[in-house]
Amino acid sequence: MKAVVALETGPPEVMRWTDVAPPAVAPDECLVQVEACGACMHEVLVRRGDRKEGAGFPIIPGHEVVGVIVEVGAEVTGFAAGDRVVSNQRQRVCGKCRECRMGRETRCPRKVFLGDIGLNGGYAELVAVSDGSLVKVPPGITSPHVAIASCAIGTQLNALRDVAHLELGETVLVTGAGGGVGLHAIQLAKVSGARVIAQTTSEEKVEAVRAAGADEIVLTARGQDYAKDVLAVTDGRGCDVVLENVGAVSFPSAVATLALHGRLVLVGEVQKTPPTVAANLNGWRARDITIRSAASTTRRQLEDVLTLVERGLVTPVVTATLPMSQAPEAHRILENGQATGRILLVPDAS
Ligand SMILES: [Zn+2]
Ligand SMILES: [Zn+2]
């Protein structure tokens, strides 16, 4: 098969579209013919060697797959050849540990992230994924854009619904609103009946942020404090929920926008060694605030995202589709922060 292979860490050019043996299919795995794979900042960090957990090179990157099953392992019961499926970021979770049994599979200590280890990943014509990390795509969804359902949408559903417990009528701040995850957070918060304030540092992304449904847009220079701007559009009250998609550079402002009883969910922090942030503990205590974090998506959350997409309530935002041989270009766009929405890679025509 053809695949994008990176033999070692380095610049985007270390990724080459080349011939490689198809992955072996374990008894609990399905072999998926890839229709499209999302390009995610995760792969940029892996490729650069900047990811905390490290990776096992050589690799085929990619974990946001949509495709059709062409072969199933002997132990697979819930899927058959011909099923159209979307991957849930991981090649496998154990399904047996305490975290998995509590529905917290995102924190399974034995999980294997798809595309981080060895020559099996989504930037390829074929990929092997365990049945515990696949979900069938409902027949009402035909677009390949659904590839990003888990990473770009499911993570935000996890944060808003299951971690922040967003309630009807509350006010939500989405930071980094113009990025691939932020645009989906805006849509989910609107569907949930929230008033949405979107913070972005990019003038070029304002239109997309507005189109996603933001009620208010706060445009500030990168690294500049935006708390007073957010407080100004909430009559000084602040926000009930803050989705913090940026990290340390934004965190102090994000906390300062929290209303009484507000909940902040930290989703993004892309720096390997982020700077330490100062905390005004009296300010925190006086407002009864909650600081939590959320990462990735459970299978149930992914199923719920697909239901929302099928009903037309949430739309995956994909702004560019490139052939896999141009994976280096896709990574350059991600590294430069130019992408409004997500980038999809599709196998080159053979
Ligand atoms: Zn991703
Ligand atoms: Zn587990």
Automatic annotation (TrEMBL):
The keyword Metal-binding applies. GO terms for cellular component: cytoplasm. PROSITE patterns: ADH_ZINC, QOR_ZETA_CRYSTAL. Keywords: Metal-binding, Oxidoreductase, Zinc. The keyword Metal-binding applies. Its EC number is 1.1.1.1. It comes from the Bacteria. PANTHER family: ALCOHOL DEHYDROGENASE 1-RELATED, VACUOLAR PROTEIN SORTING-ASSOCIATED PROTEIN 11. Its cofactor is Zn(2+). This is alcohol dehydrogenase. One of its GO terms (molecular function) is alcohol dehydrogenase (NAD+) activity. Belongs to the zinc-containing alcohol dehydrogenase family. It catalyses: a primary alcohol + NAD(+) = an aldehyde + NADH + H(+); a secondary alcohol + NAD(+) = a ketone + NADH + H(+). Residues 10-345 form the Enoyl reductase (ER) domain. It is an enzyme of class 1 (oxidoreductase).
